[in-house]
Amino acid sequence: MPAHRPVNLALIGAGRIGSFHAESVARRLVDADLVAVADPAPGAAGRLAASLDAPKAYTSVSELLANPEVDGVIIATPARFHTSVVVEAARAGKAVFCEKPMALTLEEADEAIAATKSAGVPLQVGFNRRWDQAFYEGRAAIDAGKVGSVQLLRSLTRDPGPYRGNPEKTPLWTIFYETLIHDFDTLLWLNPTAKPVEVTAIADALVRPDFAGNGFHDTAVVTIRFDNGSIAVAEANFCAMYGYDIRGEVFGSGGMVMMGDVRRSSMTLYDKNGVSNDTWRRDTDHFVNGYTAQLASFVDAIRTGTVTGPTGEDARNALAIALACITSVTERRAIPLSSL
Amino acid sequence: MPAHRPVNLALIGAGRIGSFHAESVARRLVDADLVAVADPAPGAAGRLAASLDAPKAYTSVSELLANPEVDGVIIATPARFHTSVVVEAARAGKAVFCEKPMALTLEEADEAIAATKSAGVPLQVGFNRRWDQAFYEGRAAIDAGKVGSVQLLRSLTRDPGPYRGNPEKTPLWTIFYETLIHDFDTLLWLNPTAKPVEVTAIADALVRPDFAGNGFHDTAVVTIRFDNGSIAVAEANFCAMYGYDIRGEVFGSGGMVMMGDVRRSSMTLYDKNGVSNDTWRRDTDHFVNGYTAQLASFVDAIRTGTVTGPTGEDARNALAIALACITSVTERRAIPLSSL
Amino acid sequence: MPAHRPVNLALIGAGRIGSFHAESVARRLVDADLVAVADPAPGAAGRLAASLDAPKAYTSVSELLANPEVDGVIIATPARFHTSVVVEAARAGKAVFCEKPMALTLEEADEAIAATKSAGVPLQVGFNRRWDQAFYEGRAAIDAGKVGSVQLLRSLTRDPGPYRGNPEKTPLWTIFYETLIHDFDTLLWLNPTAKPVEVTAIADALVRPDFAGNGFHDTAVVTIRFDNGSIAVAEANFCAMYGYDIRGEVFGSGGMVMMGDVRRSSMTLYDKNGVSNDTWRRDTDHFVNGYTAQLASFVDAIRTGTVTGPTGEDARNALAIALACITSVTERRAIPLSSL
Amino acid sequence: MPAHRPVNLALIGAGRIGSFHAESVARRLVDADLVAVADPAPGAAGRLAASLDAPKAYTSVSELLANPEVDGVIIATPARFHTSVVVEAARAGKAVFCEKPMALTLEEADEAIAATKSAGVPLQVGFNRRWDQAFYEGRAAIDAGKVGSVQLLRSLTRDPGPYRGNPEKTPLWTIFYETLIHDFDTLLWLNPTAKPVEVTAIADALVRPDFAGNGFHDTAVVTIRFDNGSIAVAEANFCAMYGYDIRGEVFGSGGMVMMGDVRRSSMTLYDKNGVSNDTWRRDTDHFVNGYTAQLASFVDAIRTGTVTGPTGEDARNALAIALACITSVTERRAIPLSSL
């Protein structure tokens, strides 16, 4: 594509995070334009497109993909549709940015990867934490040898409370497929020279114990052993009353890096109750710069043909751990990753 | 102007901060375009305009102001030219964003205010700290009564070291006109119900003591008394070896707010030397979001006709304190502000 | 015993921590006297006693226990002797403070508990973290309902580096018996209404991989499930290059408490390398106040007959988890605690 | 005196801080005994002595000083009596620890110094911050050259609120004589190679504005210029609703040290209101270790004959600044210190 016109991006799936990505393209990325939105819900695409001055709105993904002006798509549909849309978009010759999880099975993952390879289009996946200032500084410190050989890792996701989800409508294993998948990518990315070899997971319904019998899980702890001996713990919970809490910790033979702070800014109040800080309450507030940088990276990938962010293979690797977790919870045992 | 086209902005003065503002307009503001750059240095405007895809470059301010496409100008010339350019821009009907200090005398300040009022154009001044997340949260806490009656305030600016300025080329009183003017605005803004009544300043050349005899100052401490009894201290130094350190503190009958942290992110390294964080080394890194928000506010002012950021009057008020400091240092006494 | 004379304490085992406890008694506890020291190594007891003005030194424990002036003993022998010395001391009618682990088997633990009960003497165990200011404030917050129902817990011990231990002389399973036993007590104590039901442990030799084949472990991660659904992670490593790092975290339906900071004080240095703090390098520096308070509590237990600190039963509960860890590592599976 | 018996200390003045010092001697210092208490208020000395098992109580200072068992005295009378008691104690051959301010005039200070010199007894003054862990680490960093040449300093004292003092009974200039005298000593001690040359002070009644006309001051800001060009700001307020806030900051050519944190421990609560820490509410809680170390230093001074803590000369130097502050407030001008 010409270097001197903006990249034309289209959104597929106008839900919460999709709408936010569309807004990032339209309002926060200067060298990209939002040219279309597709969503099957009547009116949804049109309303979002109108609010962001995007010229086209569709209820059909295929019609959007047939639009020759679209250089790349941002896929933010429900997760179960991700792979098929990736494949269709690739076949239409569009660059693909896909929200996590890119796929729900390894076969799907392979299919998505193959389709984009075959079409020669970039495929980038929505592991946005890699662009958070603290996390990429942490990775840089690891690369610079400041923690030495990695021995212990931790990554956690605590979604902000109060919890407003509906356990009945939450797909089974959401906590692994949608939440902890972030932590799995983070842990793999922060332990760059190692491969995971064994996974053990515990999951429960502690936020909503009334749904404990339905297969609903809102709390999980996962341990991952790597081939260099290092051990990681990932942890998630759907209801942190104090805010959106994302943290990482990597400890090694030379030291440790810690990343993440739920405090919203350095503004600190001292009053009769003590010392306090307000907190981040939404991912889209906390990570606004990282979300923008993630899409800027996708724009670069379109311009250069090279994906520097998380790839389809990265998505597959994180998915393999999520799948092992599901088996581990079901069979109550440690799962070797070679068995996948 | 039409709501649905970007605002057309032009830069006057392509130095360090001007170039950064131009980049903010071109790269970080979506609903504004950089349409022109003027700088008298041969080639300077052209190079900057080319790098940011701005269509026009001028060596003459008057020619830029004659360009009917320009809705508003960003004035980032050397300070001694600010007022005359504000006046000329206002007469040309352009909205005006002027870097601090807007003027070097109260007469100039009055002239700039009168010219923009008379022309009916918005006038906003570059006190960017008001848009820093921590500082505006601090002001909000004060407005919400969380510190009670304000009693003690502190604001400081420590420019990052090593110091690379040339004391021989630094205009006299730069520490008050250009550096502490930020702190004076901050202190006035954080003490919204009070008026300053007396100023005492101490200034010295401690970073470059070899220039102490030339009137050069690189270190200053200022105390300001307000009509509600509150007392503020402003402090500046040109060489903080550890980074770009901007902090504020407001203490009152109910508590305190503190704002500002030189740490660059939550990424914390623990190693054999202890616990450490990297720091902000440049204003344009530390305050990138605030600088963008400041210009977004100017764009809003152009669209709505209402300036919600710092006005010409705010610039005059901060200047009055800077001028009192100069007299205080010269005459070695406290200066009542009514005497100005 | 009379309220108005100091309690007479004797030390059994003049190693590193025993010597420190003796010093605490002699120098930091005002209402207790160090009256005797026993150690089988020739001269060891005598040297320590002399340096602390303790009147008696023995190479025989039995002789020390026969001293009628001794009200209570502090047992700091190698762990494998703990139980037999507890029993002998109890039979001699002495109050017993025993370093962790109080026993290496549940049978031993029962024996120690029975002997002290039968003799009617207080038995307190050396889980010193309960007296650390941050940890007891954390427990108080939990008791006050500030975290709601406990859901996720973490406790970690990282011994300061560089690691100077001799893997060949380190008893098998030291990481569970001696190190993580602290974390197990901490987790049980911070989750006061729950009982542990299942334990899974991973252990490895990452600090000294050259000893990985000998059964030596220097790194471990343990997950514990409780009967209220809460899940705890305990983690240990023998070589934190940055200092002595002890932390706890308890997350629940209402919020979270975090405890522990390796920074030595609020003294913060800002220099060309960034922002930094020195760290605690030794347990006896970091926890000096807690160690003293622990022994003051033992003195109170002697005076009042009531142990308010960790009891023999607490020692048994923590030991049960350590034993389950050993089985878990050996058999590579989750261990139900009812099976013990 | 013999090295192997405890030092015998006596308290003169059984008020709040005196009683606390007595308790430190009786309960927290092992190699010192509290042997006597004197206080003119009927029963006061007796009650305190009884509660701490001190054998003697007096209403007469002279009688206490005639007790040959007393090695040293801790003077904690109202400030106006300090000098005369120091002189009388010195003449009685007792080592002297005197609370701040040691004197209210320079003549008194000289008299106290001369009396103790003439008697050959140690004289130490109660500037307890020097023993706070953060502050002495700060001074050590300065001595090690880590801040380079000192340029800017800050020290502040904010007493905990709510304010319960009686402005009518508060001696004039208490804020300088009793409160800021700590900060003056701290600033002199943290700037060890410099001498103060000029002082400017502002004081007001902001906590109790209803007493503003009576000469009562509860808020003050002081600037001090030193002969090396460095500039210090000292600040005090009688009512910090958030706790007992003592901080220091020293900035120089190489960096900065900051000392002091009102947070009580690392225990941090995260809940629906954000992130919070409890605070220190009393000097005797916050600085308990420093207060004990201060008296241990006095005991050492008695044993060795050498005072390593703040001396009578240090007390005189801090007083000289307090006196300059009083003149500065009265005459509303900067006061050269050579004029004292």
UniProtKB/TrEMBL annotation, chains A, B, C, D:
EC number of the protein: 1.1.1.18, 1.1.1.369
Matching Gene3D superfamilies: Dihydrodipicolinate Reductase, domain 2, NAD(P)-binding Rossmann-like Domain
Top-level lineage group: Bacteria
Gfo/Idh/MocA-like oxidoreductase N-terminal domain ranges (all copies): 8-127
Keywords assigned by UniProt, alphabetized: Oxidoreductase
InterPro entries, alphabetized: Gfo/Idh/MocA-like_OxRdtase_N, GFO_IDH_MocA-like_dom, NAD(P)-bd_dom_sf
GFO/IDH/MocA-like oxidoreductase domain ranges (all copies): 139-257
Recorded GO MF terms: inositol 2-dehydrogenase (NAD+) activity; nucleotide binding
An example Gene Ontology CC term for this record: cytoplasm
Biological-process GO terms, alphabetical: NADPH regeneration
Family per similarity comment: Belongs to the Gfo/Idh/MocA family.
Protein name (record): Myo-inositol 2-dehydrogenase/D-chiro-inositol 1-dehydrogenase
Organism of provenance: Rhizobium giardinii
Lineage of origin: Bacteria, Pseudomonadati, Pseudomonadota, Alphaproteobacteria, Hyphomicrobiales
